[in-house]
Specification:
By secondary structure, this protein is an all-alpha fold. It has two domains: about 60 residues; about 70 residues, no CATH class. It has six helices and no strands. The longest helix is centred in the first third of the chain and has 35 residues. The two termini are about 15 Å apart.
Length: about 140
């Protein structure tokens, strides 16, 4: 659903700017409404097509087609778990045992947007849940 908001957020000001060149207020409002309707129809068609691709991927029997999303999820989960649980606990246990070691730290700054997006913790998912349009998605 983020595609709808990204596209409309970009195109709405363009539509409004172009409509500013129409001097008649009634014609201007009509042109804005028509352009906005066409834009939303286009974006909805694109998202429907992407949903069909996503469903085909998810229902595929091949692990290399249907398994890439779970693989990314597990990789992100493992990195998150190591960074915030595994490494600190292992360092603490090693220090208690009298063998302090410098365990490698992972740079999760690039991974966090992927993980948060997969978990649906972005603003668009929150908007869907609040507005009620996200019912039945999970």
């Amino acid at each position: 659903m983020a595609g709808i908001f990204d596209m409309t957020g970009f195109l709405t000001p363009v539509i409004n700017k172009l409509a500013d060149y129409i001097p008649d207020p009634v014609a201007k409002a009509k042109a804005q409404a028509e352009a906005t309707t066409e834009m939303l129809q286009f974006v909805t068609a694109q998202n429907t097509a992407q949903l069909a691709v996503d469903q085909a991927e998810a229902s595929n029997k091949s692990m290399f087609v249907a398994g890439w999303r779970p693989a990314i999820g597990w990789a992100c989960s493992a990195a998150f778990g190591w960074t915030y649980v595994g490494q600190p606990v292992a360092s603490w246990v090693a220090a208690l045992a009298g063998h302090p070691v410098a365990l490698p730290a992972l740079d999760v700054s690039g991974m966090m947007p992927v993980l948060l997006g997969m978990l649906g913790l972005g603003g668009m998912r929150t908007f869907e849940k609040v507005s009620g349009s996200g019912k039945g998605l999970l």
